[in-house]
Amino acid sequence: MTTVTPAIQVQHLSKHYTIVHDEDRPSTAAESVLRRIKHPLTRPHTERFTALDDVSFDIQPGSAVGILGRNGAGKSTLLKLLTRVAAPSEGRIRLDGRVGSLLEVGTGFHPELTGRENVFLNGTLLGMKKAEIRRRFDEIVDFAGVEKFLDTPVKRYSSGMYVRLAFAVAAHLETEILAIDEVLAVGDAQFQAKCIERMRRAADDGRTVLYVSHQIQTVTALCDSALFLENGRLIQHGSVDDAVALYQTTREKAVMEQVDIDRRPGTGELRIQRVDVGAPMVRTDETKQVEFLVNANPDFSGQYFVSAHVVDAHGATVLHMDSRASNLWLDGTQEQKVVLTFKGPWLHPGEYSVDLFVCASGILDSFEGAARFEVHPVLPFRGTVPDGLAGAVLADFDYETR
After folding, report:
1. Which residues are in the ABC transporter domain (predicted)?
2. pTM for this structure?
3. Topology of the domain comprising 8-18+45-251
């Protein structure tokens, strides 16, 4: 009997970070030198943060594996270790083949190089010959839909263009392992559907796919097994249904905890202070508004964006609204009152919650269950809407005969 070598073997994997507390940091280089001269034996106050804690698992070739867990559970850290973006503190990783990856927006491409140059650079870094890359080049460009901008430096790309090209490169360069983080949320719905189909085909062709996402319906449609992480530990490795059930249970617990600002995930550089969802009940055809206040931090450098997920009673994200799509970036040194207004597509009658995120290069604040509202079944249809109508949202439609 032939023994199949796992595509991925992870043994006792851990990742620790050392956090230096702000109050102990010298404000200038001169102050740092003077402090060392005066107190040569004094060490700054540090704290060890464990992002991954003794994680072990095997994944077989051709598997499509979802990675689920709350923000801060260790999902993205695990992908960074598997793709060698970061090194483990402890443990061992064995990969049978090359890894193509799409992690957070901003990684993987050189901003000064054009899209064309970055395609060849990525392929070369994966150990591919130029002839192999040329053979796939037209397919990559067609999938990404960025032909007009191929000779433009990628630093001038929108986040959506960047993700489309980055995914196309990762998916078409035929590495044995494909690792995708949840950056696909930046793309439009049509492109997301193309990506899911491409990943499904990759798994059917014998490639191993790892997919991190909060989109439960997408994980269920794509993956044949799942990992569930909580606080850096692997809680479950098995069926997608079991992982989804754990995710939903821990989400409810997280919603209760995150009312306390100090217990919320994120760096804490900025925090959401107050949320107002207005009327707790809304009709399916009405406009909905969510207001929230983000505090000021005079030491914050650069700009940030905000993102909102509307989540149904099953824990599935049915709407994702990112301020970058509206070209809205915010100044962290000023207090900001943010107003999100959305109308349609119509949500199914039922209860929903809103998750709010403040982000820059990483997550500054993650407020799951920041607000709740209920949708009442007032629909503009002439007939009766049947119970259990499929689909995440309702469309404005009508039938006629001609």
Report:
1. 28-256
2. 0.66
3. Rossmann fold (3.40.50)
